[in-house]
Amino acid sequence: MTDIEKPTNFIQQVISADLDAGRVDSVVTRFPPEPNGYLHIGHAKSICLNFGLAQQFGGVCNLRFDDTNPEKEDDEYVQAIIEDVRWLGFDWAGEPKFASDYFAQLYSWAQHLIREGKAYICELNAEQMREYRGTLTEVGKNSPYRERLVEESLELLEQMKIGAVDEGTMTLRAKIDMQSPNINMRDPVMYRIKKMAHHRTGDTWNIYPSYDFAHGQEDAIEGVTHSVCTLEFAANRPLYEWFTNNLPLPSTPHQYEFGRLNLNYTVTSKRKLKQLVDENHVDGWDDPRMPTISGLRRRGVTSAAVREFCDSLAVAKTDGIVDLAQFEHFIRDDLNETARRAMCVLNPLKITLSNYEEGKEELLSAAGHPNRDDLPARQLPFGREIYIDHSDFSEDTSLSRKKFKRLVIGDYVRLRGASVIRADQVIRDSHDQIIEIVGSYVPDTVGENPPEGIRPRGVIHWVSATNSVDCDLYLYENLFTEAAPDAGEGSFIDHLNPQSLKIVKNCKAELGLGDAVVGQQYQFEREGYYCLDGKHSSAEKLVFNRTINLR
RNA sequence: UGGGGCGUGGCCAAGUGGUUAAGGCACCGGGUUUUGAUCCCGGCAUCGGAGGUUCGAAUCCUCCCGCCCCAGCCA
Fold this sequence. Notes:
Helix content is 25%, strand content 24%. The protein has 12 helices and 27 strands. The strands form 7 sheets. The protein has a 7-stranded mixed beta sheet with strand order 10-25-26-27-23-24-11, covered by helices on one side. Strands 21-18-19-20-12-15-22 form a 7-stranded mixed beta sheet, with no helix packed on it. Strands 4-5-6-7 form a 4-stranded antiparallel beta sheet. Helix 2 (41-56) packs across helix 11 (303-312). It binds one RNA strand through helix 5, strand 6, helix 7, helix 12 and strand 21.
């Protein structure tokens, strides 16, 4: 596509070096979401990175669900994530993987560490454990259970596993260093008791491995060579390495961290997105205002646009906030190329062309796209009565041609794909509101320049008043009024934009839009990009979502 | 404050001692245009600060300043 060589990021450099030095034979990456929510644009960056890396180096990428905490996880999320990754255009190696598939293996590795004297059952409760852990500036102190006998720990772990121990009373901990300046190394928890059914393993287990005890081992089992995660896990890397170094693993993966994506005027935290859904601030996870993959899809954003955007992002260790305008650029860029053109009048104002034969209707042909002839042409019914948008007419005839390239009394304008017309007279109702314009058309100007002396001020869109389809338009704005909804005091909820959804009813769309299908993008010329909403649209009522306006 | 990480134009960034300091977004001019769209042309920084090393530093050293992450039996 582009002949400009893209600079390589630091992870690509590491992989190249590993390949060159023979440290790895082929690349294996993974995208490891926890199925506790829907994927969002931030995940898209990680997905494009991980699957992209595998593609670039001829390796493979796994989709792995990190389902180590049954508390917040659900199969609903598993299915949604699978759909979203597919929609983004990626395919994983083999079947999706699950951390829960490795629970038995993890358990025996835990026993291994106990036997090696590197793990123990601790009976400190949560509060005590916090006290013993120390703080950022003070070292911690050893748990009184730290030197428990191996056999005893082994037996207690088994008791925990079968459900004979109460939640919160015991944990399995790695015996590392309570004096470590890295708090993550102060005897971290490997297993905690949760007498809770797991969405895949049911009630087989009463204990579940912690993220730290699970992640590196999952990577090792799958032969992941480069385990790429976000910056906040950097402090966990020594622990990741401690486990991979102290366990008899089938391979030794390595962790690399990059900066997660932050976008202004939106939130990208599963917790906050879930709150928006749970408190009904939005119409579900796939509300078109949500930065979720499903929301973007419903909004009409193409997966190509998401991919292009993600590829434009730097993979580095800086944590900046990307301007929403950058994402919007890629959305428009793709839609401009792919969206079919159509016309829709949001705020209809009737124009009667007095010199056009009454009862006559002709079919005009318009291009499906200005510079693509592979898209089918459209048929536009044209007659004596048409609609234009109210905002395309002004009574102020002093407006300069340059400033107002639309219709004014006594002047001409080109109807897109049709004739040049002139406005002659304004008709008002009893409240002095303009309800109709009487005008005239210039014969033989369809696809032809008007005669000398007639200079249209501009080109406006229109639709037949007698042969069109009605529809409602959902216009979306940013969900938040603040660039950084999370910043400052108060809740991000306080910064919700009350104007984020505006519904415009009874719009007039060109006839062909009656056959619009979900998943097809349209550009309503001079208005913006739209798509049929799968949730609100029905046979009787067409509903279109505005993906984004034109610049 | 202990540990880890990061600071290049309004935003995202490339840059790994010698280049006129890439590119994209945004913005501002101008041209084309039956979408005030697209497209095209042009404009737009001395690199957090201060010292130092060097013939030469955004790139190396020192000190300072600022921001982010870690004190869940979350991930």
